[in-house]
Amino acid sequence: MASVKVAVRVRPFNQRELDMGAKAVIRMDGKKTRIVNLSKTAGDVGFKDFTFDHSYWSFEPSDPDFATQEQVFEELGTEVVASAFEGYNACLFAYGQTGSGKTFTMTGPPDDPGLIPRICEAMFGKMQEEQEDKNYRVDVSYLEIYNEKVRDLLASSNPSGGLRVREHPRQGPYVSDLSHHLVTCYDHVAQLMERGNRARCTAATNMNDTSSRSHAIFTLTFRQAGLGAEGLPCETTSKVHLVDLAGSERADATGATGQRLKEGAHINKSLVTLGSVISALAEKRVGSFVPYRDAVLTWLLKDSLGGNSKTIMVAAISPADCNYSETLSTLRYANRAKNIVNQPTVNEDPNVRLIRELREEIYKLRGLLGEETQPKVLAELQQKEAKEKSLTAEWAEKWRETQAILREQQALGLRKAGRGVVLDSDRPHLVAIDQDDRLSTGVTLYHLNRNGDTVIGAAEGSDIVLPGLEPHHCIVTLKDGIAVLTPKNGYCSVDGLATETSSRISQGSLIGLGRAHVLRYNDPAEAAQLRKEGRVMSRSSLFGGSTSDLNLNVEERELETERRRLAREYEERKRQLDEERRRLEERQREAEEQLRLREEKLEEQRRRIENKKEEELEKVCI
Description:
GO terms for molecular function: ATP binding; microtubule binding; microtubule motor activity. The chain is α+β, with helices and mostly antiparallel strands. Helices cover 40% and strands 26% of the residues. It contains 13 helices and 31 strands. A hairpin with a 2-residue loop joins strand 8 and strand 9. Helix 10 (350-369) runs antiparallel to helix 11. It is extended.
C-alpha cells in the first residue's frame, strides 16, 4: 500500500493581483505551508498551518528558496518515471482554482517546460540508457472532459455526444474508441502534445486570460520486456496518467455568463465530486460508498484514487489575499488527500507470471526428487519443464515480432510538410507507381534486403510479389550502398531503356517491369549525398539516354497507352456482345419452351376431341 503524495506550489502574483494591490497570505518553511488571514476577527488565531510531502515556494524568483520547474520535476517527475519502469501505474494531477498555475506546472511554456514534457523526455532518455537489456513500446492518448463529455484531442473528429466511458471488470474504466498513437521518440510525443493542446478548450475569464475550460488527461501506456535472472522472462505494462484539471471558480469572481457559466457549472460539478471522492477515501470507513461514477473525471481516475496506482497530487495556489477562501479550500482538499491509501501492484504479463510460477514449482519438484528418483514426481517435473520451455519460446517469439514491427515503423515514418504528409524511410526502397489502377489511393513502398538479393516476381516465395510478372522476374542486389537490377525471365527497363543484363540503378531511377508495373528506386543515403554536393536532378537527367531517346520513350509510352485503351474498348465491346448473345440465347430457350408447352396443350386438346368422337360414334351404333 502507498499513500497519495501531496505537494503544494504557490505562484507569483499575476498582473490582475498586482493591479489590485494584493498582499501575500502564504508562507512556507520546509514541508510546512501557512495561510494567513489578514482580516481575522477578535479571538481568531489568524493563520492555519498544513504539512505536506513537498511545499514549493515559487513566489519570488530572486528568493534563494525559489522552486523552479526543474526542481519540481526532480522531486516529483522522477518518481513517476521510476514507478513506470518498476511496472507500476502512476498518476500525477494538478488541483486548484482557476489561474493558480496548474497548467504552468503540468505543461509549462516551450522555454521552461512543465512536468508532462519533462517526464516524457526522461522516460525516453532512460529507455536509451537501458536499450541493450530490454525492449520497450510506448503508446500515447490525449483526451479532455468538456461539459461532462469526453473528446479525443488527437482525433480529426469526435461524435457530437462525446466518447463513451466503459468499465472492464479487471482493467477498470476506459474510454471506448479513444485513439492510441505509437511513439518511438520524445519529438513524436511533443508533436502529439502540441496538437492536442491546440485542440483543447480554453477561454478568457476575469480570473485567467487563458482559463482551461476542460480537464485534460495525457496517458502513456508503457510496455517493457526482457530476460531477468537465470533467463526468466519479465514483461510489465504501466499506465502513466498526467492530468491537468480545469480550475474551480466562483461565477461572480470570473464574470462568467452564458456558455462560460455553463462550462463553470460542469467544471465545479466534477471538482465537487472529486472532493467527495477524496473525503470518502480519506475517512477510511469500512463499506463507505465512494461516488466515482457521479462525474466522468472521477470515474476515469478511479484507479488513481484508492486503486492500483502510485499517485501524486500537486495543489496549485495563489498567494493573494483576494483569493484567500479558494486557497484555503484547496489546502484543505490537499490535506485530506494525504490520507488516501492506494494499492499499487506490479502489472506483470499473465503469461510471464505463469512462467515464473512454473519455474518456482520446478525448483520445488527438483528438491523433492532428492537422491532417489520418484517416477511420479519426475513425470510431473518433466511436464512442467516442457510447458515452461514452450511458454518461454512463445513469449520470446511474440516480442521478436513486436520489436521487428517497431523497428520497421521507426525506419518508416510520417512527417508533416505544410498541408502534405511526407513518407520517410532511412533504408533503400522501391515505390510503386501504378499506371493502370486509377482507383488506387494508397502508396506502396517495398524495402530492399540489406546487403543481399531482393527477388521480384509473381511467385508466392518472392520478396516482392507483383501480379502479371514472370514467377521470378528479376533480382535487385544491394551491396555496399550500390544497387544492381538483374533481369531473369521477364522484360525490364531502367529509366525507359530496356535491359537484358545487370544494370546499376541510382537515386530516382524508374524501373519498368513487364507491361504494367513501374517502380521508383530511392536511396536516402545517396539522396543526402547529392543534396550535400548541391546537385539537382531534373526529370530528364533521371533517364540515361539522350533527349531523342527520351522523346522516343515518351512516344512509345503514348503508343502503349493508346494500345491499352483500344484493348480495353475491345474487351468492353466483346463483353457487351457476349452479354447480348447470352440474352438472345435465353430468349430463344424461353420461346422454345413456350412452343413445347403449346404443342403439348394442342396434343391434349386433340386427344380429348378424338375421345369425344369415339364416344359419339359408340352412341350412334347403339
